[in-house]
Design goal:
Elements: E1 4-10, E2 13-19, E3 24-27, H1 28-33, H2 40-48, H3 51-64, H4 70-79, H5 89-96, E4 101-104, E5 110-114, H6 115-125, H7 127-171, H8 179-198, H9 202-208, H10 222-240, H11 245-263, H12 267-278
Antiparallel strand pairs: 1-2, 2-3, 3-5, 4-5
Length: 281
């Protein structure tokens, strides 16, 4: 499972996270730095020596890991709390086939744990730190959800645009045209939508905004993106039905005006717009 490393800041301490589509692992090494930046390994091992810690880890693994080794776990639990008992993350992982804790070597390595376990460790370090950690973690997850929603809307527009360009290729482009001529027709059709919705062509927008990167659609708001997706579908239908370009432009412009009046007043669209804008702050 491919993981992506991210960071959050908790009370002045940077905490690394490794996240995938299903699971989030938080660096115990970074959490331990809040208590003692020079003895992180010792702090983690001291936490692992605790009987309550061993029992918690055992319950978590039984609930989430079908390959967990209960026999080795019982051996650790019986020794937990004794002065002579020492347990490292690697020993715990290798002996019990644990998946809740990950130990990585190298420059960007350290000990990571599933968020359930990481929050438990943070509570052992400092209850106050744990609460701030949960707050920052939740803030990150909320931001990711907003970004996901925004990305889905952009992908929807791209998919609809593919449908639209396929209709152009099948119905508007004569055979044996040069590549340059074909590209011109595609650009011309794209500007039918630009004119219908934005009242200007892509070239006109670039001339008016020489300092901006991208194109006119990159700066569209959520309401405009929703309307654009609808116009692309409708234009593909109009092309199939054989309407000329001037007729299609007039129809699309009328529809754009009607839809934008509705969309700008829609409360859910306003919320989506606010989310989208927050992601680009």
């Amino acid at each position: 499972m491919k993981k992506h490393t991210k960071k959050i800041e908790v009370k002045g301490t940077l905490i690394r996270l490794q996240s995938s589509t299903r699971e989030d692992y938080i660096s115990l090494t970074d959490i331990a730095r809040f208590k003692d930046s020079k003895r992180t390994d010792y702090i983690i091992q001291n936490w692992l020596r605790n009987r309550n810690t061993i029992e918690f880890l055992g319950i978590w693994e039984r609930l989430n890991n079908p390959d967990f080794n209960p026999i080795e776990f019982e051996g650790f639990r019986n020794k937990a709390g004794l002065n002579s008992f020492v347990l490292t993350p690697k020993q715990w992982i290798e002996k019990t086939n644990a998946i809740g804790i990950i130990s990585k070597s190298g420059r960007y390595g350290g000990t990571y744990a599933h968020k359930d376990i990481a929050f438990e460790f943070a509570s052992w370090i400092s209850v106050e730190f744990k609460l701030y950690l949960i707050k920052e973690f939740q803030r990150l997850k909320e931001k990711e959800q907003k970004q996901l929603g925004w990305d889905i809307k952009r992908q929807l527009t791209k998919i609809n645009y593919r449908i639209h360009t396929d209709a152009i290729k099948e119905n508007l482009i004569p055979e044996h045209l040069s590549k340059q001529q074909i590209n011109f027709i595609y650009a011309n059709e794209a500007d039918v939508l630009n004119m219908a919705l934005f009242g200007k062509t892509a070239k006109q927008w670039r001339e008016e905004n020489p300092d901006k990167k991208g194109n006119i659609r990159d700066y569209a708001n959520v309401a405009q993106l929703v309307c654009l997706a609808n116009l692309e579908n409708l234009n593909a239908v109009f092309i199939e039905e054989g309407y000329s370009q001037p007729v299609r432009l007039e129809k699309l412009n009328q529809i754009a005006i009607q839809q934008m009046k509705i969309l700008v007043e829609d409360s859910s669209i306003r919320k989506l717009k606010k989310s989208g804008e927050d992601n680009y702050e």
